[in-house]
Amino acid sequence: MEAKRIVLYDGVCNFCDASVQFIWKRDSKGVIHFVSLQSETGRMLLAQNRIPEETDSFIFLDNGHAYIESDAAFRVVRYLDGAWRMLSIGRFVPKRLRDAAYRVIARNRYKWFGKKEACSIPPLNVRTRFLD
């Protein structure tokens, strides 16, 4: 896999889909690529990075390192345009606290934000950043 920065996300989760859209709109350099966890490529990347297939988390692969939960989110914002990078200061909040907050959202994401029947199709201008 040649992409060095890849977000693995739940492709049927409305909140996750909105998060992916947020990222691609603020990554003007196009360095972050995307793969749904439900895809064959997603399952392959999980195996290659020794991440259990049942991992139900936002995952960020960055130059050979796998980050999950809040670590993944704070790593991603480092690559976004402008002031969004400042959100990375959140990594100084104790990991137990930020991961606990992350898990509350993750556990309730379908109830709070809904679920799709299938992954959405991205617009043509960003489609090449999706590796499914």
Query: Per the principal axes of the C-alpha atoms, what is the gross shape?
Result: globular
Number of domains: 1
Oligomer: single chain
Structural category is alpha+beta
Quote the beta fraction.
5-15%
Strand order of the largest sheet: 2-1-3-4
Q: Write down how many β-strands occur, each being a DSSP E stretch of 2 or more residues.
A: 4
**SSE order:** EHEHEEHH
Compute the gyration radius: what is it? 14 Å
Mean pLDDT across every amino acid position: 89
* Helix content estimate: 25-40%
Q: What distinguishing features does this structure have?
A:
single chain; 132 residues; alpha+beta; 4-stranded mixed beta sheet; 37% helix; 13% strand; globular
Summary?
The protein has 132 residues and is an alpha+beta fold.
Write a structural description:
The chain has 132 residues and is α+β, with helices and mostly antiparallel strands. It has one domain. Helices cover 37% and strands 13% of the residues. It is built from 4 helices and 4 strands; from the N terminus they run βαβαββαα. The protein has helices at 14-26, 40-48, 69-76, 95-113, and strands spanning 5-9, 33-36, 59-62, 65-68. Strands 2-1-3-4 form a 4-stranded mixed beta sheet, with helices on one face. The mean pLDDT is 89.
